[in-house]
Design brief:
Heat Shock Protein 90; 2 domains; two-stranded antiparallel ribbon; 6 helices; phosphoprotein; transferase
Length: 280
C-alpha cells in the first residue's frame, strides 16, 4: 500500500516573493543613493576647476581693464608727438605741449610697470605656500619697529599720526623681506584711507602672535567690502583709484598664507582693523 505525502509550500513561496520584492526595492534604493552621491562628488570635484576658470576669466578681464587706461594715454600722446614731427611743428612754442605728452607717457609707463610687478609678485607668492624649508627665524619685533620708523615721517607729512605698540623679542619662522612688504602694504593702506590716526600693535595672545593695524575712517566697511577686500583689483572707492590698482591687500593676504597664518578685517565704530595671526 502506497502513501502520498503532500507538503504545503505556499508560506515559503510567499516569503520568497516578499524577499524578492524587498531585494528589488533595496536594489533601486541603493542605486539611487549611489547615483546621488556620485553626482554630489562629481560636482564637488569639478567645482574648484570651474571656480578657477571663472576666476581666471575675471582676472584677465580686470587686468585688461586696468591696462586699458594707461595704454590709451600712451597711444594718444605718441600720436600727438608723431603729428608734430610729421608737420614740423617742433618749435619753441610747441615744446611745452611735447613735454606734457612725454611726461604723460612716462607716468603711464611707470603705472604699467608697477601693475605688472604686482601681478608677478602675486604669481610668485602663490607658488611659495609649501616652501617651509626656505623659512628662517626672524625677529618680527625689530622688523615692525623699523617699518614704523620709516613710515612715521610720511604720516606726519600727510598730517596724520602713526602710533605703535610693539612687544619686544617676538620671533617667527618666515621670510624677512616678505614680512617687510606685508607691514608696508598695511601701513600704506592705512595712510591712504585713515582720517588722522593709525595704530600698529604686535603682541602674543595664547598660541598666536598677532599683528594689528587699526585706523579711523570716515565710513565703515560694508559686509560686501569685508568679503571682497582681499580680491584682486577690488577698491573701496573711486576717490583713491589713481593711487593704486587694488592689488596691495591681495598681495598681503598671499604673504600671510605663505607664512601659514590668517588675516582678518573688522570694521566698527568708525574704525577698520586688520589682524594677522601667526601660529606659534
Amino acid at each position: 500500500m502506497y502513501r502520498v505525502a503532500v507538503t504545503d509550500f505556499s508560506t515559503e513561496i510567499k516569503n520568497l516573493n516578499n524577499l524578492l520584492v524587498l531585494l528589488v526595492l533595496l536594489f533601486f534604493v541603493l542605486s539611487t543613493v549611489i547615483i546621488l552621491f556620485s553626482k554630489y562628488f562629481v560636482k564637488k570635484s569639478i567645482r574648484p576647476v570651474s571656480d578657477a576658470i571663472t576666476s581666471q576669466r575675471q582676472f584677465i578681464s580686470d587686468a585688461s581693464h586696468e591696462l586699458k587706461t594707461p595704454l590709451t594715454v600712451i597711444i594718444n600722446n605718441v600720436g600727438n608727438i608723431q603729428k608734430a614731427i610729421s608737420k614740423n611743428f617742433i618749435q619753441t612754442e610747441n615744446m611745452e605741449l611735447l613735454k606734457k605728452n612725454i611726461n604723460g607717457i612716462d607716468e603711464m609707463s611707470e603705472r604699467m610697470k608697477h601693475l605688472t610687478q604686482d601681478l608677478l609678485d602675486l604669481s610668485r607668492l602663490e607658488n611659495w605656500h609649501d616652501r617651509k624649508e626656505q623659512m628662517v627665524k626672524i625677529v618680527l619685533s625689530d622688523i615692525a619697529t623699523k617699518e614704523c620708523l620709516y613710515f612715521e615721517p610720511v604720516f606726519f607729512e600727510n598730517n596724520k599720526e602713526l602710533d605703535y605698540n610693539i612687544e619686544d623679542n617676538i620671533s617667527v619662522l618666515g621670510d624677512a623681506n616678505k614680512i617687510k612688504d606685508l607691514i608696508s602694504i598695511l601701513l600704506e593702506n592705512a595712510m591712504k584711507y585713515s582720517l588722522s590716526h593709525t595704530t600698529l600693535t604686535l603682541n602674543k595672545r595664547k598660541k598666536d602672535i598677532v599683528l594689528s593695524v587699526e585706523n579711523d575712517v570716515e565710513k565703515e566697511l560694508s559686509k560686501e567690502d569685508t568679503v571682497n577686500i582681499f580680491k584682486r583689483f577690488y577698491r573701496l572707492d573711486e576717490s583713491h583709484s589713481s593711487s593704486g590698482y587694488g592689488l596691495g591687500l591681495p598681495i598681503a593676504k598671499e604673504i600671510v598664507l605663505m607664512h601659514k597664518g590668517e588675516i582678518k578685517v573688522l570694521s566698527k565704530n568708525k574704525k577698520v582693523c586688520f589682524d594677522i595671526y601667526f601660529h606659534i
